[in-house]
Amino acid sequence: MPLSNSGVLRVLHMDSSARSGISGRDRHGSHTRRLSSRFIDRWSAARPHDAITYRDVGTAPPTPVSEAWIAAAFCPPGRRTDAQKGLLAESDRLAAELVAADLIVVGAPMYNFGLPAQLKAWIDNVVRVGVTFGFDRARPGEPYWPMLASGKRLVILTARGDYGYDAGGRLAAMNLVEQGLKVPLAYLGIK
Question: What is the pTM assigned to this prediction?
């Protein structure tokens, strides 16, 4: 994992459960919030100088992309109107957090076999041509390439209402959580 010049890792800690509480402490609390909180607590105890940015897309979800957002994202930056820049401002902030992070820790519950909609909205906001990945049809071979620094790592902490969703399990084919995160983020160069 790349370190900043000071040896400090930059950690992006994300929660995506719609439940704001933590299981075991709050009534109807989130198991994934408990997992991610414990992970970050232990990480911070072992590496107290690392910089941790917290993003809660579960209780403060990103705006889903719209037709106007897509038009703004595909408009060359120098030609964007003020309104288009405004439409992309949140996405720019979210992408900047991702670009800055060395380690991405995501608490992701399984909702109906997949990601929470608010986490999918975050993915849609950070997977951006010209920002987090490049595209050029004239490029020999693969026209797509990741634009993020190499060495970024992803930790997925998930909870489900049943067992057997892991590789080889009876419900493994129905687990769209890990793949729903791994595939788009690997596309950007995050493993």
Answer: 0.92
Q: What is the architecture of the domain spanning 10-68+102-124+149-187?
A: 3-Layer(aba) Sandwich (3.40)
The domain locations on the chain are: 10-68+102-124+149-187
User: What is the Cα–Cα distance from 143 to 93, expressed in whole angstroms?
Assistant: 26
Q: What is the pLDDT of residues 10-53, one digit of tens each?
A: 999 999 999 987 888 887 889 999 999 999 999 999 999 999 99
